[in-house]
Amino acid sequence: MVYFYTEANYEDRVFNQLSKDLDKQILDKGITTDSGKILTTIHFAHNFIEPRQKLFSETEIGGFKSGIIQPLIVDLMTGHGSCGSYTLVTARLLQEMNIPFRIVQMKVNGTFGGHILLEAKYANEKWAVLDPSYNLYFINKQGELADFDEVHDNWDKYSKELPEGYNMSYNYEDKRYTNWNKIPFIMPAAKKVFEWIWGKENVEHFSLRAHTLSKFKIYFNGLFLLQVIIFIYMLYYTFLSKRFSIRLNHFENVYIASIFDKKINKSNVIPKPQASQPDRNNKPEFKKTSNGY
Question: Which residue did the predictor score with more confidence, 278 or 158?
Answer without folding.
Answer: 158
